[in-house]
């Protein structure tokens, strides 16, 4: 890899002159500037921008730490982050933790060494320590999608409680009373809030909350399939399923089909987070859609405002509304309710 010394030698000038050309600082004649720029092009030299940026304690780099880049929800959110960052001249480093606390710790250590300016962080758990570690390094941080108790930090997230409440109420209004919820880990706020919204809708309708209908797992497709299979063995068997994300819904769908059940004739299935039209051209699932792009965009705007000392004085918790789309996957239950085999 060519160095600044190689450029100086090729152009026949001092390294300080090359530095002045790169950083556009100090006087350099037009003839000399042309020689340096020609040498840079010939050698394919890429300036190291980190060194000069550290003198100003700024790298113009943000980090986005999220949990599953294979999920279209997160890729859409990441696009919102990137667009907002680029508008202000910032680059984004993407880190994917796979909901692993170990991988999360490894990424946080690496990012602190790189001296990023700010971080957009989707925690893999509910502990405050990782956030406090980031703040201890004087790095601005905004939490995305999830809630972390006992820490003073900006948060931008969707209305998990409200979305689950709407989906459950929709199923109840169709006539369902035996509804199972397939949710994520107990230490993730979105899982807990969606269960809370589910329970609130049931209680308001005078329906007892059956703990056997609340299945905890993770946000993966295979776990969705396993939880649905478990729910099918509960008596009375559920007539409807609420999956708390699209991957869980896909797994549950596979289990229901393998069990010989038709959606929605035999059982209804509703979920959070739509799939892109490129994957499912004709949407079928009834969904509570979170504004993933807006979540990423607004969180990045808030983070940049903090970096520029233009943000609000008080900690912000921005809760974005979800929108219910009623489609073919939800229908009234059969008149004769079936039970477990």
Q: What this model shows, in words?
A:
With 341 residues, the protein is α/β, with parallel strands linked by helices. The protein folds into 3 domains: 4-48, lambda repressor-like DNA-binding domains (434 Repressor (Amino-terminal Domain), Orthogonal Bundle), CATH 1.10.260.40; 59-158 and 291-310, 3-Layer(aba) Sandwich (Rossmann fold), CATH 3.40.50; 160-289, Rossmann fold (3-Layer(aba) Sandwich). It has helices spanning 4-11, 15-23, 30-43, 50-55, 72-87, 101-114, 129-136, 160-174, 189-204, 221-231, 246-258, 292-307, and strands at residues 61-66, 91-96, 118-121, 140-144, 154-158, 179-183, 214-216, 240-243, 268-272, 286-289, 317-320, 323-325. The strands form 2 sheets. The chain has a 6-stranded parallel sheet with strand order 2-1-3-4-5-11, sandwiched between helices. Strands 7-6-8-9-10-12 form a 6-stranded mixed sheet, with helices on both faces. α8 (160-174) packs parallel to α9 (189-204). The radius of gyration is 26 Å and the shape is elongated. Mean pLDDT is 90; it is low at 52-56 and 336-341.
